[in-house]
Specification:
Elements lengths: L1 E11 L2 H11 L5 E4 L5 E7 L2 E7 L7 E9 L2 H10 L25 E4 L14 E11 L3 H12 L3 E6 L6 E5 L5 E6 L9 E10 L1 H10 L8 E2 L5 E6 L9 E6 L1
Parallel strand pairs: 1-4, 5-6, 7-10, 11-14
Antiparallel strand pairs: 1-5, 2-3, 3-4, 7-11, 8-9, 9-10, 12-13, 13-14
Length: 250
């Protein structure tokens, strides 16, 4: 059974820059380690999930790479995927625990039961509490919703049209982290892709002040779509290739 988002995988060109942003600036623990292929990286626990950050390869590509779901056991998950033909017959897990992108409309999605280290935020005027949601660009959100339900048992909680934009949104909630499937009104056909992160925080104004003081040009806090919430955003060029938002709820 899927219980949570285990981690979100990022690839960055500048590993020390990622440590500076997620560790020093946001005040999260940034623990050094390596990925399954021995490449250097960081594990950043946040809430009940984590960011798994690795150094970019020779192509220099950076940004969000994969989504890994947490489960209370992987055998049943792999059996379910074999039953629907997503995995071939046999007992082995897919490479790196990730399905082929073809299985999820272009997304790299995996499953893990590995325990995550605990780590509270640093003693700062603000706190990053958890990953609130992961934005997934989905030209075919209905198909992707069906795959999450059929393959992983993660059902859609609600759908809506974003006011003023015409973007169609669907919300899935495997645990405390929300998966926001977004189809822009003018979306062309193409693969689904992870396209942004939003963190729930306490002390948004203090966080914005700290980030600006460290040279990160975060936007002005303003009312969010979520009732009673405020949001501030930081562009991908200033956050290791990942569009990031910070949400504070009343």
């Amino acid at each position: 059974m899927i219980t949570e988002v285990h981690h979100v995988g990022l690839v960055v060109r500048d590993l020390e820059g990622a440590r500076a942003f997620y560790g020093h600036a946001l005040g999260l623990p940034a623990l050094p380690g390596t990925d399954p292929h021995g490449r250097p990286g960081l594990l950043v626990p946040v809430g009940r999930s984590a960011l798994a950050i690795r150094a970019a390869g020779a192509d220099g590509r950076e940004g969000l790479e994969h989504l890994c779901l947490a489960a209370d056991g992987v055998a049943d998950v792999w059996a379910r995927l074999r039953a629907v033909g997503v995995l071939p017959a046999g007992d082995g897990a897919p490479p790196d625990g990730l399905l082929s992108p073809d299985a999820m409309d272009g997304l790299r999605v995996g499953v893990s039961v590995a325990p995550l280290p605990e780590g509270g935020p640093a003693d700062l005027p603000h706190r990053v509490l958890r990953i609130d949601h992961v934005v997934i660009r989905a030209p075919d959100p209905t198909g992707l919703q069906r795959r999450f339900a059929d393959y992983f048992g993660v059902e859609t909680r609600r759908t809506m049209e974003r006011p003023g934009t015409g973007a169609m949104l669907a919300f899935l909630k495997p645990g405390e982290v929300i998966l926001e499937l977004a189809r822009p009104r003018d979306a062309a056909a193409g693969p689904a892709a992870l396209s942004g992160l939003a963190f729930a925080v306490a002390g948004l104004d203090a966080l914005v002040e700290r980030l600006r003081g460290l040279g990160y040009p975060v936007g002005e806090p303003h009312p969010a779509v979520q009732p009673g919430a405020r949001i501030a955003a930081l562009g991908r060029e200033h956050a290791c290739g990942v569009p990031v938002a910070f949400l504070e709820f009343a």
